Amino acid sequence: MKAAVFRNEAGDDEEEEEEESVCNVFDGDVETTPSHDTKNNLKGFFTSLLLMEEHEKQDQEARSAASRRELSELQSNYRKRARTMSEYYSDLNAHYEENGDIKTKKPRASRASRAVACVSAAATECSEMESSEITGSGSIGTGQQRRLWVKDRSRAWWEECNRSDYPEEDFKKAFRMSKSTFELICDELNAAVAKEDTALRNAIPVRQRVAVCIWRLATGEPLRLVSKKFGLGISTCHKLVLEVCKAIKDVLMPKYLQWPDDESLRSIRETYEAMSGIPNVVGSMYTTHVPIIAPKISVAAYFNKRHTERNQKTSYSITIQAVVNPRGVFTDLCIGWPGSMSDDKVLEKSLLYQRANNGGLLKGLWVVGGAGHPLLDWVLVPYTQQNLTWTQHAFNEKMSEVQRVAKEAFGRLKGRWACLQKRTEVKLQDLPTVLGACCVLHNICEMRGEKMERELMVEVVDDEVLPENALRSVSAMKARDAISHNLLHHGLAGTSFL
């Protein structure tokens, strides 16, 4: 093509002269070299070739520069898309977590779940494409490296709380316990919750893991606020709460929540007798309800009719039954039975009932129950019939003093761990673990003498329904009458007939 262009520019006459000179050379004529005009034409030909090559080189460099600019813009767009999609996915996920499980409302929830999945996949793809190293003129280099994109979140609040000079009063207000108790819990759980650093990211420290869980239980705030406080993702905070609660249940519960030994039982009996005048009492038993979101299965079983009628608001709940010693420490727990069950039915389902009836755990001892519990060989309850005698009324007053120990313990439990006062975001199958962790942390605080502000105290109100068969032991009826007469005639009920 270049030669053709040159010939067009030089003209036909010059081409004929060149052919003649070549023929003259081969014919042996005297003229053996090209003419002066032919030399100039050849010089012009090579000059044109050099110019065209220079132009092509410049065009190639321009195209390379444009390609690099386009590649840079493409990478920038991918980064923006990755950030935007990730933020949108986090906000969408937080919205549905705050308003319950995503699958609760079927038509709308299915569309929302598909949208969340699509956004998550797109964000992942963009992050992966962003992590590729592009070298040269758009080709993928051999030194590819994958990196994990992490949203930059502020941890200023937690870093402030974690300082050694952070005020004790402010720390206790945030976590419902002193720094020394918090340190004790961290040391106890260190082996169970500690994680190792990976190539992608550094592990979250044990102190921060425990702090996320305790602050969530203490405040009952939604996970999106926990995320902002500690500079972690919402799903990460939810996972940490469940992991630490499980560690508390597995590691700390056997140590801080157990049935008293013989020496401790003797001390408990003496304390309760000095308080009420009733002998052989080793615990005060009470059953309370914790509100939950309506479950997807067995909704009627968790429907709390009494709370619904009293509050004029549909309520669902699960139960916590506990036996409490004079210090307000739980010595036995039964957690997780549906809120529609009465107190006597919950008692029959408990391990304490089986151990006492079949194993002789409480032979000759009493656990003081409420009006919703039946009178058994080992469960002492107040008189519930109409028109009580003075003796029976005085006995009920003494029983109420023992019952008050359990009620106040539950008031401190719900006041210290505010998550028990509102419907939680935790799934129903994980809820017993979370409630058990709250009870264990309550015991630790009570044993270590952690004082709680009076404004945090919660007045426990649970409607006790009389059992269908309230009197199930003749010997227990006689023993209760004997105790009542003893309280009255020995001046222990506040009156003496001497």
TrEMBL record:
Keywords (A to Z) from UniProt: Hydrolase, Metal-binding, Nuclease, Nucleus
Superkingdom classification of source: Eukaryota
Keyword match Nuclease: yes
Subcellular localization: Nucleus
Residue span, DDE Tnp4 domain: 286-443
GO CC entries: nucleus
Ranges of Acidic residues composition bias in the record: 11-21
Cofactor names: a divalent metal cation
Stated family: Belongs to the HARBI1 family.
This protein's name: DDE Tnp4 domain-containing protein
Organism the protein comes from: Brassica oleracea var. oleracea
